[in-house]
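Field guide to reading this record: the first block holds the primary sequence, the second block holds the structure written as discrete tokens, and the final block holds curator observations. Each block starts with its own label. This record concerns Cytochrome d ubiquinol oxidase subunit II, catalogued under organism Antrihabitans cavernicola.

BLOCK 1 — SEQUENCE
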Amino acid sequence: MGIHEAWFVVIAFLFLGYFVLEGFDFGVGMLMPILGRGAGSEKRRRVVLNTIGPVWDGNEVWLITALGALFAAFPEWYATLLSGFYLPFLVLIVSLILRVCAIEYRGKIDDPVWRARCDAGIGIGSWIPAVLWGVVLANLIRGVAVDSDKQVTGGLLDLFSPYALLGGLTTALLFALHGAVFIALKTADEVRVDAGKLAVSLAVPAVVVTGAWALWTQLAYGKGWTWIALGLVLAALAIALPLARAGREGWAFGATAAAVASLVVLVFGSMFPNVLPSTIDSAFDLTIHNASSSAYTLRIMSWAALFTAPVVIGYQAWTYWVFRQRISMAHIPPPIGLRTR
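BLOCK 2 — STRUCTURE
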């Protein structure tokens, strides 16, 4: 494996980590209004939100690292992608900022109206990225109108083809299922029971939609070996359903995480060796070679990553271990935010 191929794998791994970890964060935010209903709704919502409380900001670091590595290793890919997808990425980033602010400031003011607005921000900031990431991934595989100057010449609507829209629905359903299983894994009492039931309800549409998009991807753009990734996606989702129904949340979460990871492998495997295909002319495709930094730059980056990556991954693993216990409504203290009156 050459240095260019190695860094393509690194970029793929960073996005894999981001989607596996941030995927259940999105799912929690998407499902909080559903699982937060009923008696003691405010405590239920706080239980659901606290499942990701210690880890959600650390999960977002994977995206920052992935984009930083993309900029350094493949600057032409970074420049063309972020300029050509300017509006979708702008909406995505604004929604992520909205979610951050809503999570951080939800408990600062003890007022139902304030909390309702923050909950809406959490929901919007979870649903929009969950859909848009699928649209972006679909266009990375399908390609866009890249010209000889490495500029995207197509309009905004060109990004929302039927294939891309199905990709957005796929990631939304998959992240929702991933989040439901995670909530069931991290909670106790009735919240755990309701999350488990919701996971079972989400499993069938997630399997159907994800299977349809993954099969479309494989038949239209896949390689011979990516059939393995497709099989792993379908097998992991099929296993997650009976595990969730049986209350084996830990194994079910492992299955949904494997499904998300396998889907990312299918996406990047279908792209390779392209990083952004051109629908105008294949001669204008951005590849791991014509979009990369120099070999010397990539070698320097490799040494830096070799020493820093294990520390970062080890620290995050330790964080998950420390906060591994389940949360129940009995653990939720009274609100301590400022009162408006």
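BLOCK 3 — OBSERVATIONS
The chain has eleven helices and four strands.
The chain has a mean pLDDT of 92.
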